[in-house]
């Protein structure tokens, strides 16, 4: 056989083989790349849909109501189809072309979900059989509508009814349905024996109520008195006190005195609301509701011991296999039910998953009956992390099945979540706005290491930083932000960097001021959301219009509450609308704690509920108003909960003078410090907590323009004792326990027993060792903006630096005393240097002194509000 | 004489047919498969970043692993355009009738890899927020087998020659938690 023949035979075999192989590979390649491109198209369309939903929800005032929500969802679905059609270059067709392949779209909302899928439209018998006609029914032409019977079973695409994330439980005589939500809100409805149960609220573990003071995790929750937002009113953008109740924001205009809200973009005035807008107590009510729910569950043993094994499905069958067997509400009483890994949370996730999976499987498989695509539709299995995402955020799940792609049929789904919307206030949605106009994420490290001044900070819901629009008086569109003149922090908002990995609850554990701000804001926003279970009647009754010709009496009573600076008493001022001549009597409930100043002014010294009644002159109308006072503190509670680091306090030290000899300080002359030179100076609260007690620090340096000089080895070793001694001169034993130097350990300041450091080249240096005690005080000063000096200030803390210069064979020991500069930077003041060659080198440095005084436990505050112009005044 | 010439030519032709030709075909197919793998992996990686809002070290490492499993070395370029709304806000706050323009800052591969897979220290997650734009480009840096074989017959010169490339980009939909 000739070689050429062999070659030809080889070609005859190899060439077709390789051509087939190559076309097979190409078709596989095309399949997979088509699949990827379909995945991308589906993702994009779903993302567009949820963006459309988000934009509509932002800009609608009433998007919280059910029917408007449906409109927004329909708009989102339209956007989805538009986007799909455009990606597939089918823009000219109507939705039906794509609907063939989309078995279901799921909208996961706050407490339930909608499924958008096809259903068969059923017509009534007459409509099926009849035809359109007019008939003579007893002399009147009557229209009989109808359609041809072909369309009797027309399949339409539409939103199926809302399904709640709920589950039925039966234990003993208690038969309840618990509806879950995307966070800790639950709603329990059912019967327990003969009692009807209808309770709703958030499940929180650590709420306490003592003496009418609500604390959450040890942080006091107060009424907020100056929560304002911007809004467009009559063509102008105004900054008005605002309170969100049941999803609607109510505004109060102090200049015109009117109260209003917006509905359908129209301003609607409210008269006689039962709640106050300027005293925003949403946060208090949020925690009280949680406490109420907890007490309710506690008092019903069947609820308290409810386990997941008590769950039943819609036919009454047991669901233990699905859910396991453990108590649902146990962590409410022992543990932290808000944690992500709590048993309650995992049960909530499994209820949501079970419900969605069932309904979705039914929708997808039923789709076989509707679609003309000849494929078998099946529900794909979602992964665990996807269920996690779904159950914690508002999201859209879309499915695409049946498109032929080369070798197989496409079957894919897409999940897109959104965490900036009005439905859900998650823990991450509260931003902290510092007093310098920059807002931060709660997990920003800068808030915890002193780089941000947190005094005067407030918490806001993150969507209030988004732009909204309105119309000015000429009809031109203007833009505004509900919170204005602020910018996002570049470290944590613009770039999502510098965020701590720890849990929010752990971060806030060490920072009581920030915790208070955050938990109050979280409570305020969550309580303001729309809930179907909420009561919606907010106007007080104004009685029937009086009888008699022409009398249009409309008596209304409202009250404003003002507290004095130290919140030891409240003044209630009544405003009564209606002619004065109509008022016959104003009476009040004479309970202990209230004194009458005049008919319309009352003073209260205790928390409680006070009722005032007005009767009209002709006796036909009676109006009453109940005022709830819960902001009065006993002095000890006021000091404990309201006095914050950074507050100004008036303290006068006794007249003392201290002489610092040069033998102690290492400076070449004697120094004298008189306490009287600071008699008119300010003092500020440095700490007020259980660990350190109430400690105050001087606002600025007390030691005169040149401060205190320390020099050499003696100055280094004696720095702590000299500074402590100076501080102790400021102690007035009527008010204070002891004085310490800034930079010592706040809990144990007088312990200076630090050993000596050995030199690099052997032998003892005679100098004491370093310490890091100064960090606590310095961070506290920076966090609360208490650095107002223009000079450096000593910190009673030593440090040293040892270096071996091998080139010149010289060893150095440099001994410094710490200080901080006017910008808060750490400075090490080098005052003593030892080196091997030339011996010792002593220098002197100066800096200011700020003593810290610990006040006694029984101190009382008699006036003042903690500002520089009105500091707290104490008495013993 | 001419017989030997023909024989030599025949042998050379036979060698080419039996060894080089199938090899070239197969390596072309390998390249196609590698191209597909890289495209799919890149698309999945970017879409994952877009829906979760963060670049995690795990995701990045599994992405790099899946593209290098094709047997080639790749050069990955990630660019993040961070949306800064502050300038826009300031404009609107001073002049209410204008919508201010937002600014995009670009962050490039080395800055992102410093965080996600640093040389020293623990890898951390790189967080993004809604509105940021992320784009990933992958190019291969070695010479694939098919390229080497083709070089017998013709050489492709130039600095940036690559045979396998993929890119994908998109807007981030959710802020990373």
- Secondary-structure element order of chain B, N to C: HEHEHEHEEHE
Q: Quote the beta fraction of chain A.
A: 25-35%
Largest sheet of chain B: 4 strands, antiparallel
Low-confidence stretches of chain B: none
What is the helix tally of chain A? 17
Biggest sheet of chain B, strands in spatial order?
A: 3-2-5-6
Q: What portion of residues of chain B belong to β-strands? A: 15-25%
Radius of gyration of chain B: 24 Å
Radius of gyration of chain A: 37 Å
Q: Percentage of helical residues of chain A?
A: 10-25%
Q: How many strands of chain A?
A: 51
Q: Biggest sheet of chain A, in brief?
A: 7 strands, mixed
**Unreliable parts of chain A:** 541-552
Number of helices of chain B: 5
Average pLDDT score of chain B = 86
What features would you highlight for this structure?
heterodimer, A: 876 residues, alpha+beta, Immunoglobulin-like, 6-stranded antiparallel beta sheet, 17 helices, 25% helix, B: 177 residues, 4-stranded antiparallel beta sheet, two-stranded antiparallel ribbon, elongated
Commentary on this structure:
The complex is a heterodimer of chains A (876) and B (177). Among the domains of chain A are: 225-265 and 425-531, no CATH class; 556-633, Sandwich (Immunoglobulin-like), CATH 2.60.40; 643-875, no CATH class. With 876 residues, chain A is α+β, with helices and mostly antiparallel strands. The model of chain A is unreliable at 541-552 (pLDDT under 50). In chain A, α1 packs antiparallel against α2 (66-87). In chain A, a hairpin with a 2-residue loop joins β31 (594-598) and β32. Chain B has 177 residues and is an alpha+beta fold. Chain B has a four-stranded antiparallel sheet. Chain B has a two-stranded antiparallel ribbon with strand order 1-4. The radius of gyration of chain B is 24 Å and the shape is elongated. At the A-B interface, α1, β21, β26, β27 and α11 of A face α1, β2, α3, β4 and β6 of B.
